[in-house]
Amino acid sequence: MKPETIAIHAGNFVKSATGDVTPPLSLSTTYLRDENGGYPGGHMYSRVSNPNRSSLEQLLTELEHGAEACAFSSGNAAGMAVFQALKPGSHIIAPDDMYWGFKKQLQSIFADILTIDFIDLTHTEGIEAYIQPNTVMIWIETPSNPLLKVTDISALSTITKKHNLILACDSTFASPCLQNPITLGADIVMHSTTKYIGGHSDVLGGALVTAKADDLWARIRNIQQIGGAVPSPFDCFLLVRSIKTLPYRMRGHCANANTLANFLAQHPKVDAVYYPGLTSHPQHSIAKSQMSDFGGMLSVLVKGGFDNAKTVVNNVHIFAQATSLGGVESLIEHRASVEGPDTKTPQNLIRVSVGLEHIDDLIADFDQALALIN
Ligand SMILES: *Cc1c(COP(=O)(O)O)cnc(C)c1O
Predict the structure, then answer these.
(1) What pTM was estimated for this model as a whole?
(2) Domain 3-242's class?
(3) Is the CB–ligand 1 distance for residue 172 below 6 Å?
(4) Most CB atoms closer than 10 Å: which of 90, 153, 165, 219?
(5) CB of 40 within 8 A of CB of 32?
């Protein structure tokens, strides 16, 4: 089936006595046993599993063409479950512009447990030189945050298969509708469901989908169920509801971002636009081959420095100045000031999450803010 059909039907397998057409919200924390000690409803205790979470996990599994999924209470908890599942002393390779929250996690919580090389994974040729005897995993993020770099998933999978490594892919910017890393050879796909999957900036969550239910996956499932960083039934209910419109929302995000990127790329007050859909993007051809469209995120380098970037983000009216992404409303952010003093993000970079407002209004708003800088 196609994503539009999966999105609407794959989470609806929960049977209810009242004949609900959509899955009801099931808040019970505990479930009845039968006289033999079994659980006729298939659930025992809601940290271990519950109907709404099973519905979400089934839906994500099908959308990503995987074997199983684990839902978590945040994207950070999902990523952390992968790092926790690795043996202490393991070495991992991660992108130099890895999502800031994961980089912080690895450098603080895992500082004495794992060793990490942060490298530019867009240059596939140089990667093998970093593989050590204790290397177990390459973590990629594509498109990346906030530079919108694109990593060649198939090429990376050739390397990880040759060296018997895990390939994990943070696919948050793409959503399951634009790219399916498992079909390109990844072992694990990670999403912050807070972003496009939730899509309305009102639920925090994360998920992992695996290509196969192997030993690593058993350790991850154990971390989910025994570690307990699980989403609530209501979070899962909201996500299943949101996913029904995900394929159509993604079309709108992609169309608006593409038009805005082209407008900004021609604008005299703009130095550069990072958007994988622009033919000027260094990995445009890879993006074209592994994604069905180019997403709703772009970054723009305005002429001048910090002050000009601040002027623009402080003077737009429709774009809300806030972090995060993937919601129906457009967001704008001066990324370097969010990341703090040790950031490598350029001071004139503005990150934009292009929402579903009318594109003419978005362009007019950006244009009047750019007119204020010199
Ligand atoms: C937001 C985000 C995360 C972290 O997810 P949370 O839900 O905020 O914990 C991880 N990776 C990327 C690319 C993100 O944008």
Answers:
(1) 0.97
(2) alpha beta
(3) yes
(4) 153
(5) yes
Q: Which amino acid is at 82?
A: V
The closest residue, in CA terms, to atom 8 on ligand 1 is 75
**Sheet of 297-302, strands arranged across:** 270-274, 297-302, 349-353, 331-334, 320-321
Question: 106 Cβ partners below 8 Å, 6+ apart?
Answer: 83, 92, 94, 98, 114, 116
**101 within ligand 1 shell (Cβ under 6 A):** yes
Instruction: List pLDDT tens digits, range 339-360.
Output: 888 788 899 999 999 999 999 9
Test site for ligand 1: of 142, 195, 204, most ligand atoms within 8 A of the Cβ: 195
Our CA angle for 64, 67, 69, nearest 5°, is 70
CA 175-313-296 angle, 5° bins: 15
Q: What is the CATH number of domain 246-371?
A: 3.90.1150.10
Question: Exposed, middle or buried: residue 53 (CB in 10 Å: 0-12, 13-18, 19+)?
Answer: buried
Contact 290, 154 (CB under 8 A): yes
Strand ranges (E), the chain: 68-72, 91-95, 115-119, 135-141, 166-170, 188-192, 206-210, 270-274, 297-302, 320-321, 331-334, 349-353
Q: Per-residue pLDDT tens for 5-22?
A: 999 999 887 667 788 888
